[in-house]
Amino acid sequence: MNKIQQAFANSKTLITYLTAGDPDLQSTKNFICALAEGGSDIIEIGIPFSDPTAEGPVISAAMERALKNKITLDNIFSMIAEVRKTVSVPLVFMTYLNSVFSYGYLRFFKKCREVGMNAIIVPDMPFEEQDEIKEYVQKYDIANITLIAPTSRERIAELASNAQGFIYLVSSLGLTGMRQKITTDIAGLVKQIKEYAKVPVAVGFGISTPQQAHEIAQAADGVIIGSAIVNIIAKHKENAAEEIVKYVKSIKEAL
After folding, report:
1. Residue 93 contacts by C-beta under 8 Å, 6 or more apart in sequence?
2. Right CATH number for 13-144+216-249 from 2.30.140.10, 3.20.20.70, 3.10.310.10, 3.40.50.1000?
3. What residue spans define the domains of the chain?
4. pLDDT tens, residue by residue, 111-168
5. Mapping DSSP to helix (H, G, I), strand (E, B) and coil, where does residue 48 land?
6. Model pTM?
7. Cis (ω within 30 of 0) for the bond into 210?
8. CA atoms within 13 A on the CB side of 150
């Protein structure tokens, strides 16, 4: 059983997100530790990108702040190597394909393996084009996470049956961000996905409150929370760790 399977093995799974380098890399390291302390089972680390097409205003602003620090992928890899000395939960890169392509596929995935990354999510890479990185994720045992949207119903069989690690079910159409209400039939989508999937299903986009997390977890294997955490960081900056721990604990308890 690999680390991602272990994270889903015994309870509803909490997956959390932050942007690397917001407000700086030392703070990111502290915040990853805070996420783990609060009860995150899996942590997504966003690689800053100048044109984050899937992101709403909260995460886009975080990426802008990080890019102003002129951090590089090498800086991020070094920070993760340090984090891995104390944090054992699975770590997942959320990145746009151009960042990986520019760094070099072989070099990128080899480095992921070296520093202890477990998976990658590439929101701008269509399923049909995943062969572009297939040999590298296989060689270095990095799960390539599949995203499924509410509009994917006709393709669910193909998407779900080929998924690795876990399936990222997008709760709502549009960009990332906190939503007061999620109107998608999550239970129906999860049921359909599970007819074909060999991996767990986690739901993200829009979840921010303990009540929302609890409701989503009735149907799904886990929930993914990003913008609410990035919002805490935007408000408290380098002093956000304590607030992150409190917030994550409240979500974990609700699950």
Report:
1. 44, 45, 46, 47, 112, 117, 119, 120, 121
2. 3.20.20.70
3. 13-144+216-249
4. 999 999 999 999 999 888 999 999 999 999 999 999 998 887 788 999 999 999 999 9
5. coil
6. 0.93
7. no
8. 13
